[in-house]
């Protein structure tokens, strides 16, 4: 029998202090994955929280940090939602820039300041507490819910792909739902349907065995900086088009519906220009979002050689290095692009060394997928605002483990405020955003239950 959600908001309102106290307990527990500080303790604490709610929970070991896996199963044939999040956090440095202790949650001006408040413990707890709220209101969930909370997202989720490959049967589901990252600056709820991938490489050019005097050995010893500069001229033209053979092969073109969605995303050129510190931004909104979501990038993220200190040191450096991150879009394969990149370098500069530094596949769920419509309806009802549907994020997340390894649709709905300052000093989460996240998750679970009943009836 269908139920309304009238009981949800009163329960959340009555339990605000209780829910904040539970969140604060988790926030106080360090879980810095890059320093292996407090990871196991945080995983155990999260497991205890989930078990107290009635979620069947266990820690699953990986080659790195444990995954906190939980499940609440209605029956085997019911619709199954897989909720993903991460309990690890970034280091708090620089400590001197925090206005309050980084692992002591402090409320100022309606915001919780603490490392992990927005990224991702606050959003993770909103999902867990939503399940508690729904259970206490109605006694049972209308669908199956599974949880995967990893402890290495801040280390590029290095062991998540192997965990997913090894546990495909356990992770069987119909939809993956994630709450991570900041919401849209307009204040409207945001729905993300994909991410760009990322290929990272390092180029190293060598000259002499050591630095030489630029006068005494000038015109004699080659300068490796020029080797890299000459190579870069072969990699990209003056119109920013990448010249690697086959680089643009296999790119999935946006659909007409996705292009229409771009036009509906709020865009204020002056505000964006000010926030990114680039006053000469001259793109219209449609071009801005198309480049950000549907076109690959070819970025030099670092270039180092020779002397960069005060004054002048007249040398011919012995080595030059450049680091690149290449953002890839749907259907581009990082391994394929890397091999094409290597072949290009060998052809034009065979003495330059190319080193693979890591990769994440791109991912995109169809904007026309029926579950996107269901979640959009749930988010709309929860916030009483029209959601912004963004076909892809400009950045990179391990979303492909769900869409490619498991073959599932994946939807990201951020619960944190736009100015959450994740990864920075004074990271924060707006208290209202936390409670709205609880309410939104309840609505998503409820709508998916209605959808599954309708599908079965049909």
From TrEMBL:
<feature type="domain" description="Peptidase M20 dimerisation">
    <location>
        <begin position="194"/>
        <end position="351"/>
    </location>
</feature>
<dbReference type="InterPro" id="IPR002933">
    <property type="entry name" value="Peptidase_M20"/>
</dbReference>
<dbReference type="GO" id="GO:0046872">
    <property type="term" value="F:metal ion binding"/>
</dbReference>
<dbReference type="Pfam" id="PF07687">
    <property type="entry name" value="M20_dimer"/>
</dbReference>
<dbReference type="GO" id="GO:0006508">
    <property type="term" value="P:proteolysis"/>
</dbReference>
<dbReference type="GO" id="GO:0008233">
    <property type="term" value="F:peptidase activity"/>
</dbReference>
<keyword id="KW-0645">Protease</keyword>
<protein>
    <submittedName>
        <fullName>Acetylornithine deacetylase/Succinyl-diaminopimelate desuccinylase</fullName>
    </submittedName>
</protein>
<keyword id="KW-0378">Hydrolase</keyword>
<dbReference type="InterPro" id="IPR011650">
    <property type="entry name" value="Peptidase_M20_dimer"/>
</dbReference>
<dbReference type="InterPro" id="IPR051458">
    <property type="entry name" value="Cyt/Met_Dipeptidase"/>
</dbReference>
<keyword id="KW-0479">Metal-binding</keyword>
<dbReference type="Pfam" id="PF01546">
    <property type="entry name" value="Peptidase_M20"/>
</dbReference>
């Amino acid at each position: 029998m269908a139920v309304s959600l009238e009981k949800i908001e009163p329960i959340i309102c009555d339990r605000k202090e209780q829910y904040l106290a539970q969140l604060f307990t988790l926030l106080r527990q360090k879980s810095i994955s890059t320093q292996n500080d407090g990871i196991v303790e945080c995983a155990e604490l999260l497991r205890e929280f989930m078990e107290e709610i009635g979620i069947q929970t266990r820690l699953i070991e990986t080659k790195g940090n444990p995954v906190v896996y939980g499940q609440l199963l209605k029956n085997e044939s019911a619709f199954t939602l897989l909720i993903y999040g991460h309990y690890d956090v970034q280091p708090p440095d620089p400590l001197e820039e925090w206005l309050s202790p980084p692992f002591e949650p402090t409320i100022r001006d309606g915001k919780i300041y603490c490392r992990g408040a927005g990224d991702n413990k606050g959003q993770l707890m909103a999902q867990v507490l939503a399940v508690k709220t729904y259970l206490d209101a109605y006694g049972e969930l209308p669908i199956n819910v599974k949880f995967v909370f990893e402890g290495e997202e801040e280390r590029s989720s290095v062991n998540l792909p192997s965990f997913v490959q090894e546990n495909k049967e356990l992770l069987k589901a119909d939809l993956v739902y994630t709450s991570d990252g900041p919401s849209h600056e307009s204040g409207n709820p945001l729905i993300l349907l994909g991410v760009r991938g990322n290929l990272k490489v390092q180029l190293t050019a060598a000259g002499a065995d050591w630095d030489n005097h630029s006068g005494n050995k000038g015109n004699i010893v080659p300068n490796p900086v020029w080797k890299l500069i000459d190579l870069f001229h072969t990699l990209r033209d003056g119109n920013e088009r990448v010249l690697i053979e086959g680089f643009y092969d296999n790119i999935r073109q946006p659909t007409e519906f996705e292009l229409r969605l771009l036009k509906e995303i709020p865009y204020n050129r002056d505000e964006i220009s000010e926030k990114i510190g680039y006053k000469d931004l001259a793109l219209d909104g449609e071009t801005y979002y198309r480049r950000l979501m549907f076109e690959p990038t070819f970025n030099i993220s670092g270039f180092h050689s020779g002397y960069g200190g005060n004054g002048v040191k007249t040398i011919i450096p012995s080595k030059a290095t450049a680091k690149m991150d290449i953002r890839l879009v749907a259907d581009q394969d990082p391994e394929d692009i890397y091999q094409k990149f290597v072949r290009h370098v060998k052809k034009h500069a065979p003495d330059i060394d190319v080193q693979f530094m890591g990769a994440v596949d791109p991912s995109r769920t169809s904007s026309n997928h029926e579950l996107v419509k269901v979640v959009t309806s749930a988010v709309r009802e929860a916030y009483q605002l029209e959601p912004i549907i963004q076909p892809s994020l400009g950045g990179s997340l391990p979303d492909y483990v769900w869409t490619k390894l498991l073959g599932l649709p994946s939807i990201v709905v951020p619960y944190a405020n736009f100015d959450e300052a994740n990864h920075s000093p004074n990271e924060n989460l707006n208290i209202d955003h936390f409670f709205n996240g609880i309410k939104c998750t309840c609505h998503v679970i409820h709508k998916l239950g209605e959808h599954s009943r309708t599908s079965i009836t049909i």
